[in-house]
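Next up, sample data.

:::
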Amino acid sequence: MEHSAPLAEKLANGLAGLQLQLPLDAHEKLLAYLDLLAHWNRAYNLTAVRDRGEMIPRHVLDSLAVLPFVQGESLADIGSGAGLPGIPLAIARPGLAVTLIESNGKKARFLREAVRALPLPNVTVEQMRVQDASGSFDTVTARAFSSLADMLAWGGHLLAAEGRWLALKGRADQDEITGIPEGFRVIAVRPVRIPGTEAERCVIELARSSSRNG
């Protein structure tokens, strides 16, 4: 599918702003993902952002800002919604085994279609509550999902012993950080600048208290 030059240029400039170099076909797949998202959004209301140009900074670049902190060979994206950040990360790292966990039926249906259409052989979709999911993942991501305490209470069992939990937040709330459950610790709060948006963003990186890394 042909994509408009302004969209492709905006994506390329944004990726350069994040200092990310992606696989050769990643740009095309990211734009194809936005096409799918915009199309399905009309009926399924997957995101409040309607314009694909706005989706680039607010969804794609925002998701890829955590890529430098992803570790290991497996990733679980909890409360994945429209596949954010899981799908952009899976496109950027085709060797990464990504599991998208989403309980909403309409959103899970979109995720399965995206995996089929793009295609993304490294991605699995699990339609279930986070609390009911199983497995052990090197990285767990959560974007605008809930408080840190709730995230970890519901999905902390998915984090491998030496794994990393990456929570994408607007800003670091000290009350949230001090309220994380026993058994976990904050490794770092990393401010990130998203090209094309002035919104305040950070990645809160957590690990198990017994983890030797970091």
